[in-house]
Amino acid sequence: MPTQLLSSLAEDALHLATLAACAHARTRFVDLDFTDPAAEFALAQLRAGAEGEAIEGDRAMEDGRQQRGLVLLSRTVDAMARGFFARHSSGVGVSVAAGLCTRYARLPEARWVDVDTPAIARVKAPCLPARPGYVQLGRRLLDPAWVDALEGPGERSLLLLLDTAPLHLSPFELDALLVMLSARLPEGSEIVLGFGDRHLLRPSPALCCQATLAAARPRLKQVTHYPCLSIVHEDEYDEATRASVAGLNAVSRLFQGKVYPSLLHVRVR
Predict the structure, then answer these.
(1) What is the pLDDT at residue 205?
(2) Is the pTM of this model over 0.85?
(3) Inter-CA distances, 157 with 73, 86, 88, Å
């Protein structure tokens, strides 16, 4: 199974690099006070399946700057998620195109769903430790069935984490995904989006009291607006999270998203 998973993730080096960074953070980045036993377990499973050959995550460890940045990215998104669950104690976290993300294990009190393509969902389970309240769904990203599957009895607040998924989508695919989420997610649901220079996500000029999401696509000379997705203001974060998001985005812009993506946080209205 680990060999099949490596093959399935071959085109997504960022997932493997992030897994390796989180797994090694305990010893390599002691000052960050970040540990991830689930990532350590998953990396050990992958190495065992590779039968002694180096995997992409090991090769990525040669770039210490990127690895430190990926740990900071993981820690920052964790803090944003904790803030969401502090506001919505019965909420559900959803990692979209999760791959080998182990956030579900770092936030053990939260109900969590990982959404992956069927091919990845089938083979990744043996590589990740299970826990109560954690579910995996195998669906195509643009298939609305996975969004509908998140609906439950009563009102349920959802936090969707797409911190890496948009990096692998074309402008048309990202537009289709954002339109689908705008239409199908319950009001009040929140989305954390990661983006690079391929999709320049930004606040749209506020026509009323609150800015909404816009996607600028320089190659197409096009700007698309999403009026149902309002920007979550930084004042909703605690001081540490606010500083972490601002610092992370500043470094991401400096390196044009080549080290790790920038983050933007929106709410369905």
Answers:
(1) 67
(2) yes
(3) 23, 12, 7
